[in-house]
Queue: 4 jobs
Job 1
Amino acid sequence: MNVPAGTRATMIPDIQGSVLATLDSGSGTLAKAGYRPYGESGSTAGSFRYTGLRIDPESNGLYYARARMYNPAWGRFLQPDPIGYAGGANLYAYTGNDPLNRTDPSGKDPFIGATVGFIAGAYYGALGAASTPGATWKSVLVGAGVGGAVGAGVGALDPSLGVYTLAVVGGVAGGAGDIAGQVITNALAGNSLGNINYGSTAGAVIGGALGGAGGTVLGGLAAKAGISELAGTAMGASISSGPGTLLPAVGGAISDYLTGGTEGNPSTTTNPGVISQGSVPLGLGGATATGQSMK
């Protein structure tokens, strides 16, 4: 939509995305706005206000949060949480009653994003640990735990849902998990912490993105079938991430080929009880391109 230059206004947000002021491009007038913790304000002017949500002035200041309407005077949503009790015991609560530190632009609790991030991070944290020379079952388990925690944190940052959002969450969580797994194995095996195979990380990013997108699609189908959207998304992300678990090995092999096998592959490993010591690990079963397995 083309807006005449003289009628344009620049919105100035705060750290939560709430529009604190608008600057008129024609007159240079600065119109300010203020909010109470749950979004109450003395004015309903403008289209976007509290945490960047679209305000509906005809409904006396209700906010459109995509999945449901939000009433800032009550500090509550007007419809129950579409993910049910998976988002907490109070189906109408806004941001778990913590509006100063959290936002909810979709009207849905961040548990779904956190779940997708946890699955992707744990998957690829384990694979990243297992694919690093000197890996043990301990490093794989720690890699999965750390990767899952990092991924859950990434997913909880943005509770808005959708194929693109959860694909980004899955991709970032997968890549972060893969790097965390490699670093943990290097630390436990006494390798240089800088021995990171970024080809494996690139594969984890793509695999995590596929898992996140697949989880969104299957989660939506589950919701239409009357099944918990959270459970459906978690199951979908797990299933969709399956084929993607091959991508870190493929990316790692390509990276080793291009770098002559030097990236993320220390020349020696002395850690006993390793899962793999070949340059192209093939998975958690311990098989590698050299045929070595866990001792």
Job 2
Amino acid sequence: MCSSDLEEGLFSALNALQALDLSNNQLSWPLEDAQNTFIGLHQCKTLNLANNLIRRLHPQVMVPLPSLRQLNLSANPLTWFPQTAVIHLQRLDLAVADVTTLICDCKVTWLQANLNQQSIRLAARTRHQKHRHPTSSTSMPHTSVLCAHPPSLAGTPLREVDVEDLRCSKELEPPTFAQQPRSQVFLLEGTGRLECSVEGSGNETVEVEWRKNHEELPTHVDGGVQMSRSLGPSQRVTSILELRNVSWADGGRYQCLAKTALGVAYSESANVTVHSAPTFVKRPNNVSVRLGSNAKLECAATGFPAPEIG
């Protein structure tokens, strides 16, 4: 069974683990948007992430792996590969193959240089290739890492691109968030709204999804999602998630995910807390007492957080 999730702290007790094979899964956000995925793996020397759904690496995701010597990222739909994600790893044997989705701009000049110097291998043995002989970079075709953008370089092997053609442009930037969703308190059985706005460059269509606790929201969300688009020098997409008849189950961490052909962007997480309005479960009754004696009146209320009665 393929997995798309890695619980935070999953590896925290495995500080003696030497090798970790996570290939042939559907992992994306634990590598793209989390920086503590590998907390605890101080001694890990080999990490296989081949054949997942990784489109970019969080710049800090490899920081908990100071001993890492072999990293396989082959067969992932990588669009961006920041050097900052691996620059702290000394003597790293990095394998990258079967990548056809790369944004070829000035940010990949380091990758091209390492490919040309054969510091990065273009092939690595994966679990499904265990009966084959691993192929070294010297015998692999140069088509293993291909550019997808800009259009003028689409389908061109990165190793064959003139370095002068690796230019940065706003039209090649992934989407960015102009408005982040805000943490809020929703009342039980009431209505709540979360909003985010995304700006996308060029002519690439921006898609926005809402996620709760890193999982796609179910299609039966009561209220639904409203989308609005404005066109200009760049696209701006506003997405409003409306939750009606709020229940306790609606509490959690909500996040916008923006996607274009140029990459993905994750918003900050917004915490939704559900409160219930105070309700009297016991009201004071009329009493008759003699002059000078004590009177006792009782009342009680329920709600969340617990109400104060005064």
Job 3
Amino acid sequence: MTTQKRTKLKAIGTDIRYRYKATVGRMGIKRNSYKETLERTILLKDVIRIDTNEIVTDHLWFTVRKRFKELNLRAGDVISFSGRVSSYKKGYYHNIVDYHLKYPSKIVVEHRTTIELNENEITSATIPTWNEYFDVVEKKNRSGTSIKSNDDIDNKFNDFYDDEEDEFIKSKMLALLDN
């Protein structure tokens, strides 16, 4: 059975790029298993199509690429950007069709948050670290959120890391996967 989400995005169609406005919610992190690297992600909340002033979705996640990184965005910033609607399949069995905005471009900061930057705060320019990734995995494990284990992570880790600090990170990661 295939279910659909984000019907407002679906109704916009995939042919034309529109301008959108959104508030930065927070930064995240994900593991790119193909490249064996970590990538920064950014959550955009209350995404509004500017020409209709209608909220098209309550949130969207994007991988932080060059332009997002250059803008050094943080929670509370308001941005506008151009994007095209696209469908994708999600879920464990890839049986759920959902919609998102693809290829954000012409990204402009409309309003910067005025709250002083905390020394531990993560921005779109913050380089993701393995410790941050493991903290996220640990929080998900503690909350009962189901996450898939990383295939052959022990072997892959050994291929890329070998000093003392990395051994500590590896042991932390393996302990999390054992839980």
Job 4
Amino acid sequence: MNSNKTYPGIRERTEAFFIDGILEIIVLIAIAKILQFFPTADESYRILLCLSFVGLYDPIATSFFGCTVGQYIKKMHVRQVHNENAKILFILAIVRFVLKISLGSISYFTIPRDKKNRAIHDYCAGSVVVFR
């Protein structure tokens, strides 16, 4: 392992998070526009579709592609902490996302104190964010 390796800090990770937030808003607006063509669609299905996108975007992106769009733009990947070449499992990506959203900025408190800049949600999911 390269001891000079740097890991994304709070600034880069927050920027990626906000990029993803903007993307999610754009996609949700697009979904709403598309659903206008289906006026008989039940409201509960509309809500379920939107919540599914918001809840599954991050876990699917990080486990299948290794990063979200925001992380890709910021040149970062989410990897397994013990094998930085391997993507995290889907179930761990869900755990990571739920904790990240539940804890909010509290999750970032460990980043400055950790040599790999891991957040609380990274510890719980066995993940690390690396520059690609």
